[in-house]
Design a protein that fits this description.
The chain is mainly α. It folds into two domains: about 5-70 and about 210-220, Orthogonal Bundle (Arc Repressor Mutant, subunit A); about 70-205, Up-down Bundle (Four Helix Bundle (Hemerythrin (Met), subunit A)), CATH 1.20.120.530. The chain is about 70% helix and about 5% strand. The chain has helices spanning about 5-15, 30-35, 40-50, 70-95, 95-115, 120-135, 140-155, 170-180, 185-205, 215-220, and strands spanning about 55-60, 60-65. Strands 1-2 form a two-stranded antiparallel sheet. β1 (about 55-60) and β2 (about 60-65) form a beta hairpin.
């Protein structure tokens, strides 16, 4: 992995995991110091993150973690509804018992993270669950589009799932989806996925975020 790719993945992961909340300033000089690289490399990384709609460039402000509008969030979830319905239908036709067991073990890790109060890890497992479903379809186009959209989801879910009193039901909904897949019940799987995404959409509120994140602390973890 190149130096540029390493820095890109570090920053991207921090955004997806909400360690860099929406509105966080991404100063080129500070990031160059943290990663011990030239500012030109940081500029390239920030351009790539902008292309993935994870970072915005504001006049007189510079680069900052993207702050999606309410419409952005609505558009994102409506698109996820369409794509993840397709994922459910595809998987009900082709998923194997081995793959079902793989997903069940995956959820055990997610539930353990919730029980241990590890909110960052549980959020990561929750996000990755949907990515794994997309990968199992074997359809590279659906996988590529859906993963890009899923990566943007934490930016619009501004209320932290880990701190929400209803966070445990997210894992419960995942369990119900897997049960429907194990029965190859396409109608139920689609319905449960729609309900799950609707639940997530209702959880986010476009309230302002504190953008005083200490970059050094984020990348020292």
């Amino acid at each position: 992995m190149t130096q540029e790719e390493t820095v890109f993945q570090y920053i991207k992961k921090a955004i997806i995991e909400n360690r860099l909340p929406p509105g966080t300033r991404l100063r080129e000089l500070k990031l160059a110091e943290i990663f011990s690289v030239k500012r030109g490399l940081i500029r390239k990384v920030l351009t790539r993150l902008t292309n993935e709609k994870l970072v915005d460039h504001q006049q007189n402000i510079g680069a900052q973690v993207a702050i999606p509008s309410l419409k952005d969030g609505q558009d994102l979830f409506s698109t996820r509804q369409i794509l993840e319905q397709a994922v459910m239908r595809i998987l009900c036709q082709k998923i194997t018992d081995i793959e079902v067991r793989y997903l069940q073990k995956y959820l055990q890790k997610e539930q353990l993270a919730y029980q241990q109060g590890n909110h960052k890890l549980s959020l990561r497992w929750s996000i990755d669950f949907h990515k794994e479903l997309a990968k199992l379809t074997g359809n590279s186009v659906i996988e590529e589009f859906l993963i890009e959209i899923i990566n943007r989801t934490p930016l619009v879910i501004l209320s932290q799932l880990g701190e929400d009193p209803a966070h445990s039901c997210v894992n419960h909904e995942h369990t119900e989806i897997i049960e429907a897949l194990s029965r190859r019940d396409s109608e139920s799987a689609v319905r449960l996925m729609n309900q799950h995404l609707s639940h997530l959409e209702k959880m986010f509120s476009m309230k302002p975020q504190k953008a005083t994140t200490n970059l050094e602390e984020v990348f020292s973890e």
